[in-house]
Design brief:
The complex is a heterodimer. Chain A is α+β, with helices and mostly antiparallel strands. Chain A has 10 helices and 22 strands. Among the domains of chain A are: about 150 residues, Sulfite Oxidase, Chain A, domain 2 (Alpha-Beta Complex), CATH 3.90.420; about 130 residues, Immunoglobulin-like, CATH 2.60.40. In chain A, β10 and β11 form a beta hairpin. Chain B is about 35% helix and about 0% strand. Classes of the chains: A alpha+beta, B mainly alpha.
């Protein structure tokens, strides 16, 4: 018998030793307890933490630091460069507030949702009552209009980190509106939060009845306070500002209400205003991206995310020669409607300088535009064009011959 | 004729369908009281029809601007100095955040940037002062709104702002807001846009 193999006798001995620990080892166990900090025990048993070797974290946008002099938090970016798959962990989900906000400490037992205005039966719900109604769970991205406010940022967290994707659970808004009985002259809703500034936005009634959700859970647990605990409106594919956090009121109305959060998003040009509700088809390569370092020529897996406010991603193409030729990438995740989709493509780097790009096509057949195409539409020079709505143009990453990766537009 | 009547009935049914009216099926939740609705129903539309009774002038607003400590964050002259948003044009420090909509005279100052004066009233009423939101009376909000409009050369110092006059104020950016088009499921944002 090979002495290195555990034999039966040895196994029995070990078993007896373990049993000894289990039966008479109370002193040992309590000794361990005394030596283990409460926080560590909490992590081992109550709520798991990630490895100390994993350090990926959110950062505030450079232009408006958080917290500011008043303790207000503005825009905090998701580390897309470290992301895998399509779900953003709740703790790394981006957060944005219009004027800056304190995170309210809301007791869900006290929280109410009121639906009123142009309805036959105004209604007020407790959280428990909302949870008695049929629920749906859907995977949706959220993206801030300000994502890629500047095309020259260094890395993908700075350029594209104001988007994240999570599973959201709640009651379809259409169900609640039907309970209240929407009157025929109604055409918009105003949704409003309970936080100190009571942020509110106007949403077309057609959208509200189509796929909006009143959500109480994110990624399988109650929504995090920064994301709107205990209740958040989800308007899939619309700009982040419509996903009202701390939702407490929906008023059904017959006009666009031009709220504080509305007015900055519309424009004298109807064509520009048309681009502000829904997010256009958009993709970005997350690896390799700005700040990454390739170790040398050879095989790499290009990876990235694609999404559209109009529906599901149908296909993604990748160029490794600055847009001269395109190869179809593999969709490596389910392509849900208004959700991030993960794409990938095997690539052999020859060690020469090159530019990587991705472009996606959504279920309507709309193709993500280049900056030059957008400039042509507005009849503006390509280096000066202001992309109306959220900037969904193609993002180039330049690989230098030393393997360092840079923003191709910086 | 019978078929015409049938057509009429069919078209009425069609209208009812698009009106989304239907009987409640779950019976969960209760009717809010009138007082509960009144307490929360704070959104003011450009029509101003939701504005409460009350009135105020720029002179009263100037005194309130000091008394309510607005100046502590927004500066004595409405110039923020980087702490809180600038309220009065010409005094602002250069803003690193680009204007979302076209600026008025290169200014992103909310008090003149918004197309309707009702937006200013609504925002002061719901969001100010920081930490004491919702504590101002309607008269105080009318006065502070009048003060900001006067200091930005939109109204005269003695103009009284109330539920009738405020919605009629012609803001410099009144034509700076085309409404978004009707939203439809499964349609691109703008036909012909790349």
């Amino acid at each position: 018998m090979n002495s290195k193999k555990p034999n039966r006798r040895g196994f029995l001995k070990g078993g007896a030793a373990l049993a000894g620990v289990a039966a008479g080892g109370a002193g040992l166990a309590s000794g361990q307890t005394a030596g283990t900090p409460a926080k560590k025990l909490d992590e081992l048993i109550a709520y798991g933490d990630r490895s100390r070797f994993v350090t990926s974290k959110r950062i505030p946008v450079a232009e408006r630091h958080s917290p500011d002099e008043f303790g207000l938090t503005f825009h905090v970016l998701t580390p897309l460069q470290d992301s895998h798959g399509i779900i953003t962990p709740s703790s790394l989900h981006y957060t944005a507030t219009h004027r800056g906000a304190f995170v309210p400490d809301i007791d869900p037992k006290e929280h109410r949702l009121m639906i009123h205005g142009m309805v036959d039966r105004p209604l007020i719900f407790t959280m428990d009552e909302l949870k008695r109604l049929p629920s749906v769970s859907r995977i949706h991205f959220i993206e801030c209009l300000g994502n890629r406010a500047r095309p020259t940022h260094k890395n993908v967290q700075e350029t594209h980190g104001l988007t994240s994707c999570a599973e959201w659970t709640g009651v379809p808004l259409s169900l609640l509106l039907k309970e209240a009985g929407v009157q025929s002259a109604a055409s918009w809703i105003v949704a409003e939060g309970a936080e100190e500034v009571k942020g509110n936005s106007s949403i077309p009634l057609a959208k509200a009845m189509d796929d909006c959700m009143v959500c109480y859970a994110q990624n399988g647990e109650p929504i995090r306070p920064q994301q709107g605990f205990p209740l958040r409106l989800m308007a899939p594919g619309f700009e982040g500002i419509y996903q009202i956090k701390y939702l407490r009121r929906i008023k059904v109305v017959d006009r666009f209400y031009m709220t504080y959060d509305d007015y900055g998003h519309i424009n004298p040009d109807p064509k520009a205003s048309a681009l502000t509700h829904q997010i256009g088809p958009k993709s970005v390569i997350t690896f390799p991206s700005g700040g990454h370092q390739l170790s040398g020529p050879g095989i790499y897996q290009i990876s990235g995310l694609a999404w559209s406010g109009a529906g599901a991603i149908r296909s993604v193409e990748v160029s490794t020669d600055g847009g001269q030729s395109w190869k179809k990438a593999e969709l490596q995740s389910p392509a849900y409607r208004m959700a991030h989709a993960r794409f990938g493509l095997g690539w052999k780097w020859d060690g020469k300088e090159c530019v990587l790009m991705s472009r996606c096509t959504d279920e309507l057949g709309t193709v993500q535009p280049t900056r030059a195409e957008v400039a042509k539409f507005w009849n503006e020079p390509v280096d000066k064009v202001r992309v109306r709505g959220a900037d969904n143009t193609v993002q180039p990453w330049r690989i230098s011959s030393d393997g360092s990766v840079h923003n191709g537009m910086a | 004729m019978a078929w015409r009547r049938l057509l009429l009935v069919a078209s009425i049914l069609g209208i009812c369908q698009t009106a989304w009216s239907q009987s409640p099926t779950f019976g969960v939740g209760r009717a809010p009281t009138a007082e509960e609705i009144r307490a929360w129903d704070i959104a003011i539309s450009p029509t101003g029809k939701e504005l409460p009774p009350g009135q105020g002038t720029a002179k009263e607003g100037a005194a309130l601007y000091v008394r309510k400590a607005c100046a502590a964050c927004h500066g004595v002259k409405g110039s923020s100095g980087g702490h809180a948003p600038t309220l009065i044009k010409g005094s602002e420090v250069p803003n690193t955040v680009p204007c979302l909509s076209p600026c008025v005279n290169d200014s992103n100052v909310m008090a003149i940037h918004s197309p309707y004066a009702t937006v200013i009233w609504d925002y002061i009423n719901r969001g100010m002062p920081l930490g004491k939101e919702g504590s101002l009376t309607p008269n105080e909000v009318y006065s502070l709104t009048a003060f900001l409009l006067f200091k930005n050369d939109v109204i005269k110092e003695d103009e009284v702002m109330d539920a009738q006059s405020l919605p009629k104020v012609k803001m410099p950016n009144r034509d700076g807001a085309a409404l978004p088009p009707e939203w439809k499921h499964g349609e691109p944002r703008l036909q012909g846009y790349p």
